[in-house]
Each structure stands twice: as structure tokens, then as C-alpha cells.
Amino acid sequence: MKSTQGLTLLALALLTCTSVRAQQSPYTLSIAQSLTRDSNVLRTPSGQEQADTISSTTLGLAVDQPIGRQRIKAEADIQANRFRNDSSLDNDSPTLKAEWDWQAGDHWEGEAGASHVKSLYRYNLSGASVVQERNIQTENRQFFRARLGVVTAWTVEAGWEGYRRDFSADQYVAENMNLNALNLGMRYQPQPDLNARLNLRRSTGRYPDYSATFGADDFTRWDVETMLSVRLSAASLVDARLAHTNEIHSQPTAADGPKWTGSLGWQWQPTGKLSFTTRLVRDSDTSGQALGDGQINSQSRVTTHLEVGGQWTATDKIRLGLSYQQNRRRLQETVSGQSGLDGRDLARTVALQLNYQPIQALALGCSVAREVRSVSGDAAAGLSYPYQANVYACFGRFDWR
User: Would I find Signal among this entry's keywords (predicted)?
Assistant: First the structure.
């Protein structure tokens, strides 16, 4: 707890000793503190739960600076997480991000950037065995995107993404992965409320520690994507993606072969104080969607992710949110000399959150969440396991500009 207290005292000293800056300052210094009570930290089966209280202190610095027609954005955070009962899970999680939004002439624009993130892995995301030790996930991303056209109805889009993830626990090294993706496409936007895209994406990657016996697993994935975004009214926005995906692996794996993937989203704001968001995603672990937001679970041939949320702005200072998420995974495992295992699991989360912002620089909030996972088919025989967890959390955040 000493390092947590040290970070807190350092941040308070900085906030106290500095004078108030103008609103247009590009710099933001932030400090956040949260307390979380988790009834099942390791997401173990019923009867094996390990409850704990986690204190998380975050100190961050961000910059958002326009330079002529360009814009530079950077963020550096360090989060100290301390567990009251099991100190072996204590970790310091840094986040480093940088982005350059560039523009050249009237018809060229794009973004380039990189990020480095370390965090304690969410134990419920994959695996049929319970991991008792600390498992740190390290993710590195790089990207470059360019668009030609921009102000015209037709725009050519191209980009590159690089991604690498590593796990510290021995049980998860088979999921270490690196990936490179290239995409080329065309966007048609005849009016601000309508745009359509056609995109070709090629991804190549490797699971370097796939098997101690068979070695690495190299894969190639092709996606032909069509995307559509339509604002149906001032209160309603719909976006859809449909892709034909073909994935080929060098090792026997459940992810081989062609399949249909895609997503469907709807944002609806019937009143000025009430809004709803719905999103349905069907994809696998190697998709751009998975790398971008982490919603697609690993070790799955295909995962269907559903998220429904609503937010009510009671006053200018108080917001109440309710959300429901579920992940349905199809799990397969090839067994030598047998037909293999085939099963499914379903993870569901319901969360309620209350946010209070008395002044612009200060945000407070509390949340409660219930997680439940069930299994069916061969998942009950070793591909997955059921669990349940209750999570209670409160936080405070102060941003100084």
C-alpha cells in the first residue's frame, strides 16, 4: 500500500502547488482513485471463489495540441493496483499512447500512432483451467491510416495495423500473438447522414508458442467487408458491417475455414436526457474489432457479442446507466485420433452505474455488476467451466487543465 499512498501524495502535491491555467491549455493532469470489491477475483468455479478488495490509484498526463492543420495527442498513465488479501496479484499498469492526426492539402488526411499497455488479465475471458498466479497481459499497437478525397463524395482509404500481445503466466503463452493487417477500401458519402464502405483486409500473424510439441501456428486471414452508416433521424443512428472471412492456419485449429462475420449497432436518443446503445458483433479473436476494443473472446472459433445499454441524465450533474452484455463462444479442440471436442459457453454481465460530477474537473461514481457464465456440450467436459461473480466499485477522478 506504500506505493499507492506515495502516488496519491505526489499527485495531491502537484495539484496544490500549481496555479489555475486557462481553459485552452492543451495539457491535462489527472488523478483517480477507486475501490473495488470482487467476490471472485480469479473467476473460479462455484465453491472455489476468492474474494478480495482492490485499491487502484491512477496518475496521468495527457496533451492534445493542434499545430496548424495537424494535431498531436499523447497520454501517459500509471495505475497502481493493490489487493488486500492476495498481494501476489499486486501490479503497476502503465498506459502509453501517442497519435498524430495529419492533413496534407485539401484532399489528404489520416492518423498515425502507437500504444503500449500492461494490465492484469481478465481471467474469465478464456481457458478451461483456473490460473491462480498473476497473469500480466502486455499489448503493443501501431497504426497508420490515410484517406484521399475527404471533402468529396468518394474517398479512397488505406491503412496498416501492427499488434502484439504477450502473457506472463505459463498457462497462457499459447495465446501470445503478433499480427499485421493491411486494408484498402472506398467510402461513398453523398451526404453527412449516409456513408457506405467497401474494404479488403489481409491479416497475417503468428502464435509463436502455440504448442510445445508442434511449434508455432502461422495464419492468414482475408476479409471482404461492406459497411453502412445511416442516420435515420436526429435521434437515431444505425451502422452495420458484413464480411466474408477466410482464415487459414498452419496448425490444426478450430479457427480454419470461411465464415460470415459482422456487426450491427444502433444509437437512439429519444429525449435530451435519455439515450440507448445496442451493438451485436459476430467475429473471432483475430479480427480488427477484437484488437480494437477487446470485446471478442479468445480461444473461440466464433463469438457472438451483444451489448445493450441505457443512460439517463437526471440533472446536469447526475447520470444513471444500466447495461447488459453477453458473449456466446463456440469452442472446439482437435484431439489426436478422435473427432475432437465441440462446445459452447455463455457469459453474461449486468451492471448499474451512478455518476456524479459536481464540477467540470471532478467526477465521482459507484457501480454494481453481476457476472455469470454457463456451459453446454463438450465445454462442460473441459473446454470451459461455469462461474459467477459480484463486483462493487466506487471511484473519484480529478482532471486539472
Answer: yes
What is the per-residue pLDDT for 124?
56
- CA–CA gap between residue 222 and residue 257 (Å, rounded): 11
Structure-model confidence comparison of residues 14 and 152, the more confident one = 152
Q: Rounded to whole angstroms, how far apart are CA atoms 105 and 256?
A: 44
Report residue 328: phi and psi, to 5°: -110, 115
CA 325 → CA 46, 239, 278, 328, 346, distances in Å? Answer: 21, 19, 10, 10, 10
pLDDT > 80? residue 37: yes
pLDDT in the model for residue 242? 94
- Which of 182-186, 278-282, 372-376 shows the lowest per-residue confidence on average (mean pLDDT)? 372-376
Name 223's Cβ contacts closer than 8 Å, sequence gap at least 6: 199, 200, 201, 202, 203, 243, 244, 245, 261, 287, 288
d(CA 170, CA 153): 51
Statement: residue 236 has pLDDT above 50: yes
Q: Residue 124 carries which DSSP code?
A: G
1-15, 98-112, 164-178: range with lowest mean pLDDT: 1-15
Helix (H) / strand (E) containing 12: helix 2-17
The grid coordinates of residue 186 equal 472506398
* pLDDT digits 0-9 by tens, 60-106: 999 999 999 999 999 999 999 999 999 999 999 999 999 999 999 88
Rg of the chain over Cα atoms, rounded to whole angstroms, equals: 23
Supply 200's cell numbers: 479488403
Rounded Cα distance between 330 and 376, Å, is: 10
Spatial distance between the Cα atoms of 209 and 229, rounded to a whole number of angstroms: 39
Neighbours of 373 (CB within 10 A): 22
Instruction: Give the three cell numbers for residue 22.
Output: 486557462
**pTM, 2 dp:** 0.81
Note the pLDDT of residue 171.
Answer: 81
Q: Which domains are seen in the chain, by residue range?
A: 42-53+65-76+100-400 (2.40.170.20)
Identify the CA nearest to 60 among candidates 323, 305, 399, 390: 399
Distance CA 170, CA 297 (A): 19
